[in-house]
């Protein structure tokens, strides 16, 4: 029984590292929302790499967000009898109106082979669209 309690305690403490930090009210917070079974990661703000790829938290004003988006192109979208193709893409988004204390949403998806990402404000208004910076092996970039 004692071993079970120790294991339970250790596993619960490990889960604490998965919690999101509390947003800083002096900064803008950007939630990442990939569509369906895809992966969207925060890479950098204004060229500075981030320690945590689960969200962006930025100073107010004009910022450039860099992100990585991984998705799969279904075989039916490629050609008859084709296997699905994994895409690994880098995108960049520029927006000049981030406001302290606001919570934004960065939604990402793909059309065929092309990735896309859109930034929305707290009232769900479209603010900016990302541009694709390349797809392929991004581990070396």
Written description of the protein model:
This protein starts with a helix and ends in a 6-residue tail after the last strand. Helices cover 13% and strands 51% of the residues. Strand 2 (39-45) and strand 3 (48-49) form a beta hairpin. It is built from two helices and ten strands. It has one domain (24-140). The chain is mainly beta and 141 residues long. It is elongated, with a radius of gyration of 18 Å. The strands form two sheets. The chain has a five-stranded mixed β-sheet with strand order 4-1-7-8-9, with no helix packed on it. The chain has a five-stranded antiparallel β-sheet with strand order 3-2-5-6-10.
SSE layout and pairing:
Layout: H1 2-16, E1 28-34, E2 39-45, E3 48-49, E4 55-58, E5 61-73, H2 75-78, E6 85-98, E7 103-111, E8 114-120, E9 126-129, E10 131-135
Parallel strand pairs: 1-7
Antiparallel strand pairs: 1-4, 2-3, 2-5, 5-6, 6-10, 7-8, 8-9
Concise structural overview:
This protein has one domain. It is built from two helices and ten strands.
Radius of gyration: 18 Å
Strand content is over 45%
Number of helices: 2
Read across the widest sheet, the strand sequence of neighbours is 4-1-7-8-9
> Pairing-aware structural class of the strands and helices?
mainly beta
Total domain modules:
1
SSE order, as H and E?
HEEEEEHEEEEE
Per the principal axes of the C-alpha atoms, what is the gross shape? elongated
How much helicity do the residues have? 10-25%
Query: Could you give a short account of the major beta sheet?
Result: 5 strands, mixed
Question: Could you give the count of β-strands?
Answer: 10
What does the average pLDDT come to?
85
Report the end-to-end length measured between terminal Cα atoms: 49 Å
Protein name: Putative lipoprotein
Organism: Pseudomonas saudiphocaensis
Keywords: Lipoprotein
């Amino acid at each position: 029984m004692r071993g079970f309690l120790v294991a339970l305690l250790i596993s619960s403490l490990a889960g604490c590292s998965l919690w999101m930090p509390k947003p800083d009210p002096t900064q803008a917070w950007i939630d990442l929302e990939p569509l369906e079974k895809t992966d969207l990661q925060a890479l950098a703000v204004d060229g500075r790499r981030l320690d945590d790829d689960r969200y962006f938290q930025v100073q107010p004003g004009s910022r450039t967000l860099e992100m990585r988006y991984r998705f799969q192109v279904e075989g039916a979208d490629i050609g008859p009898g084709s296997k699905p193709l994994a895409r690994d893409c880098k995108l960049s988004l520029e927006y000049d109106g981030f406001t302290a204390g606001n919570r934004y949403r960065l939604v990402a998806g793909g059309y065929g082979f092309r990735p896309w990402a859109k930034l929305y404000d707290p009232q769900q208004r479209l603010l900016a669209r990302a541009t694709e910076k390349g797809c392929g092996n991004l581990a070396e970039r």
